[in-house]
Fold each of these.
Amino acid sequence: MQSFRLIRPRTAQEAVSAAAQGGAASRFIAGGTTLYDLMKLNIERPGQVIDITGIGELHRIETAGEELRFGALAPMSAVATDAVVSRDHPVLAEALAKAASQQLRNMASVGGNLLQRTRCPYFRNGAGGVYPCNKREPGSGCAAIGGLDRSQAVLGTSEACTAVSPGDWPVALVAVDAGIELLGPNGPRSMPVDALYRLPGETPQHEFTLAPGEMITAITVPRRNAGRLSTYHKIRDRESYAFALASAAVVLELEGDRIAQARVALGGVATRPWRAPAAEQMLAGQRLTPELALAAGHAAFRDARAGHHNAFKLELGARTVADALIIAAERRP
Ligand SMILES: Cc1cc2nc3c(=O)[nH]c(=O)nc-3n(C[C@H](O)[C@H](O)[C@H](O)COP(=O)(O)OP(=O)(O)OC[C@H]3O[C@@H](n4cnc5c(N)ncnc54)[C@H](O)[C@@H]3O)c2cc1C
């Protein structure tokens, strides 16, 4: 049993000040669906937990303006079922609705979802010291490389780590060029969601680019980039309550019967939410056919590297992209 100090600030500024005082041992908590798990597994050992759920302004969902704005504490279920989001931005609604379970989506926040940690079994189940994991114990090695690697990444891997970035929502957000608003000890700032994630390289323990004590306050989506011709297509071992083996977030802008611009991002196959520019370039200016969709899917995996048991992800991933493109195009009025 770990003991920790619990703080319940009423404003975002109070929360950030408490984090600055608590230093590296501080953690914010929102829905708690990830953090408490990791504490029980002895992977996270915070000395101070800052419960931000009492900060009213962080719960707000705004869909009327030029950009959509989701407070970091908005529940996943509320954003997934918001009338504007589900009608005009299916890629966002579907990414949320296909994640976890209804009960979890009711508890979990859209901000906390961005910061969940990998489900790599060697990361989560080895805290007793049975298996090495560079993400959990830097420098200890990686048991997944050469081990049971069926669920591991094929894109963005390094000699130190092949753990998959587990979230669905971040993949959709990267596809629509979403941003995050932050508040930290040095004041507010914003950045693209894409810039939140690091590649593992030699330091897989550093997954995010947040500065110490920085809190996500909101997620913003430019209205122009998210549209009705979009989808989040997720393939998993069972049809609900499972993480992606491969997923694709696709947003299409059509001019007549040609693709003016395609946005494609991948989940379940990479060490971070993965934009696929090679696929996007292949599609630009073209008429979508099943053959082109599959070629674009394969282009997305051109730089992929498989291990012993996960080579199936290359073809599964390509076909997931292809199917997503067809589904999105069929949403044309
Ligand atoms: C059984 C199970 C199945 C799941 N399946 C899926 C799935 O299929 N797809 C999927 O995408 N997810 C899945 N999840 C993960 C789930 O979606 C996340 O646990 C959830 O979104 C995290 O949100 P939370 O509010 O509970 O975060 P918390 O657990 O409260 O926090 C998570 C992390 O974010 C930090 N944090 C939280 N809010 C902020 C903030 N505003 N600013 C800065 N830091 C913050 C915390 O310190 C912590 O490190 C699953 C989870 C479980 C338990």
Amino acid sequence: MTFLSTPVKNAITELSTKFDTPFFVYDLDTLNTHLARLVAQTEVKLWYAVKANPLSSVIQRLDNAGFNFDVASKGELEQVLAQGVNSERVLNTGPAKSPKQIKHFIERGVRIFVAESLNQVRWLNEQANLQNCQLQVLLRVQLRWPDGEKNPLGGDSLTPFGLGCDEWQALNTSNYPALSFDGLHIFQWGNMLSSDKLAQLWSQMVAPLQQLASDLAIHLKVLDLGGGLGIPYALDAPTLSWDALIAALAKIKRDAGVKELWMELGRYAVGECGHYATPVVERKLNYSQQQVIMSGGINHLLRPAVTNQDFPARLLRDSNAANQAMSLYGPLCTALDCLGEHQLPNDLNEHDWLVFSQCGAYGFTESMPYFLCHELAREYVIQNGVLTCVRQAEDASYYLR
Ligand SMILES: Cc1ncc(COP(=O)(O)O)c(C=O)c1O
């Protein structure tokens, strides 16, 4: 993994001399290059899982690159439409689609839905009838594997995402004339870093999915494999090979006999474009452990506390000092506010800044900014080499009532 490109490093260094609170920087130039590579193939239709980063300028880059959009809430839908995206390019996934939400989505022009329960199928049909339209529907399937691995997306555990094949057997598709059942959706494994493992999981899915489609008399036109493509969070971890993935996906497409293969990418699309920088407040030795206390922590980057997986951290300034293990803590009064143990130069001190990479996905909006009334983090973008502030650091009076 490369650390910081020169434009990003220069931008963060400049900002660190002006401000004393944490901020995010998203490198949209690097993002553009990455997205151009992802769309340069014809095997898989790509959707952007907006939950990864709903920032308007990020959505605009995905739109320009030709991605479609997977939204899981009214807020995400409105944010995507506000960027000028046509609702025909929007797909709705998510376990909590109430009749009211479905009604709103149809009113706003959305026609493609992933149904996660028998009730959702019924409500989709009712709302489509009321608004006199036809919807394209994929059924979300939850499979079980014998090796029983766990994963933030559930892996082999029971989750509320979709239904098992046995439960879907109760569906009689002919009872829902307003719905075109065009395929199946399956996604149970997040942040996978091996294309072989992904290919193996995907290929195990083909037979049970084909069987389910045949049981339900669904012509399997579309297979949606969700997200799950990983990015390395450890400095020495491997990166996925896009070419190997496309080859694996082409095989799945052939084996499953589907006309269209879809994926909704979050982390793999935008994760690497984001960086989070925070000042160091102090360093102390405690029970022989080097502890670094920072201005920002899980109030701005919650993910390490919920997944036990740290974002890679580096010292912003160059240092020739030898590395030493240091535990990094944020400002919240909970032991959960720890961004991990990292090897950092042993001259690190209270005048320094730390930079966390891979923060473009599941960063700012996946966090807990209100606890303890600290500032919201600033957000910046670099586009065509120009640094622009897209969010000021709001202090707690902004959100306290
Ligand atoms: C339905 C769905 N699709 C796609 C994604 C994006 O996953 P990833 O970030 O692994 O690409 C998610 C993430 O939770 C999801 O719930």
